[in-house]
Amino acid sequence: MEGKGTYNFPTGTRYDGEMKDGTFHGKGTLFFPNGSKYEGEWENGIANKGKYTFADGLEYDDEEWLYCDGYDRRFYTEICNGLKPAGRSQLTNRVPPREIPEGCYDCGDGFYNPKTRVVVDYNHKFLRNADDDEHDWIVKTCRKGWDEIVGYQPKMDA
């Protein structure tokens, strides 16, 4: 690989840009299967500087990152398009949110089944087996594919 070209990874990620001696070298862009991209300048396979852009167009800025800080927890689409009326919560940055299979969690790069401890991508292709730490994190923080009653529940008389 020498000069300008394209390299396709088995994961679906694609690199378009300059190469030297079989490595990324010069200007190039990594395009990820989820629609995000990283535009950067590379030297002997190492990115020296660049910019990451999420699939929805949000650009990451490590110096002035104002999105989802401790004071403003809105999704990027809410910042761009405004908040929904009261009672219509936005559950994810994706509108409408993905349907999660019953008994599973949406862990960001796919669905997690806590019974089998397997993560599959959004096309239901195997990604990985979750270890104990990942299992605990997903169960604690990720969106579920089922409803639960939370909060105060009065005792029912028999």
Automatic annotation (TrEMBL):
Keywords: Cell projection, Cilium, Flagellum, Repeat. The keyword Repeat applies. Pfam families: MORN (PF02493). SMART domains: MORN. GO terms for cellular component: motile cilium. Its main location: other. It is found in: Cell projection, Cilium, Flagellum. The keyword Hydrolase does not apply. This is MORN repeat-containing protein 5.
